[in-house]
Amino acid sequence: MTPLGIPTYSLVTLGGVVVGLGLFLWDASIWWASHKKKLASKSLRALAPTVLCLSYGTLLILCAGGIIGAAADWSLWGANQVGDVILVYGVGSNSPTVTRSSYLALTPGGHAVVILATVVLIAVSTRRGLRWDFVRPVGAGISLGLAKSIAGVAGVILAPSVSWLGDLVAGLL
Prior knowledge:
Blueprint: H1 14-34, H2 41-61, H3 66-91, H4 108-125, H5 135-144, H6 153-170
Helix pairs in contact: 1-2, 1-3, 1-5, 2-4, 2-5, 4-6
C-alpha cells in the first residue's frame, strides 16, 4: 500500500507485454511505411514523440504510488486482462507472469521528474486539442516497463538515469 492507501500491483503478464508490443508496433509500422529515408533527420524527428511517450509511460509504471502511479497500475492491469483474454481465448495459450525480479523504484528526485514530464506532456498534448496519438505509446510504455525481457530494457536504463537527474536538479545528491 502507498501512503494514500491506493493499492499497487506492479505485475505484468505475457498478455500485457503482447498488448504493449502491439501498441508500439502499431506506431512503428505507421512510421516505417510513411518514411522512405528512415535515417533522415526529418523521419527521425517524426519518431521522437513516440519514443518520448514510450519512455514517459515506462516512468509512470516505475512510480511508487499516488494518483499517477495508481492510474498507471490500473492501465497495466487492464492491458494484462486484455492480453490474457487474447492469448487464452484467441490462440489457446497461457499467460505467465513476466515481471522483472528486481523492482526499479524511482528516487524522490525521479518522482519530481515524472511530475515535470507530466506537466510538459499535458501542455504539449492539449495545445491544439487532445493528442490521442500520444495515448498508444504511453500505454505501451506502461505495459512494457516492468517486463524482464528485452521489452523492459527501457525501465532498466530510464529509472537510474531519471532518478540521478532529478536528484541532481533537486539538490538531493
